[in-house]
Amino acid sequence: MTNPDEAFERAVEHESRLRRRAEAYDSATGAMRMTVQIYGALAVAWAFVLAAHWLFFADPRWLVLLHSLVFCGAVGFWAFSLATWAWMRRQRPDLFGG
Length: 98
Hints:
The protein has 3 helices and no strands. It has helices at residues 7-23, 28-56, 61-91. The mean pLDDT is 85. By secondary structure, the chain is an all-alpha fold. The longest helix has 31 residues, at 61-91.
């Protein structure tokens, strides 16, 4: 019986975890999960940029307002596209491999 604290056993377990994580993105659901994560990361990063824009570069005000409106439009588009995907998946599961 091998000791679970051996470096080789830990490396094998780590490789198994990495392989299972990579396989999770090989399906349509996994690809969409990755899309949701990317959309979320983009929204959070853009929100930080927008907050900095309002705090530190508030002049000219019209530019900050335009930036805010484009941000709202982009987040709305992302939400609409994710909702459409969820609806399509419910209506036609055969298109998504399940």
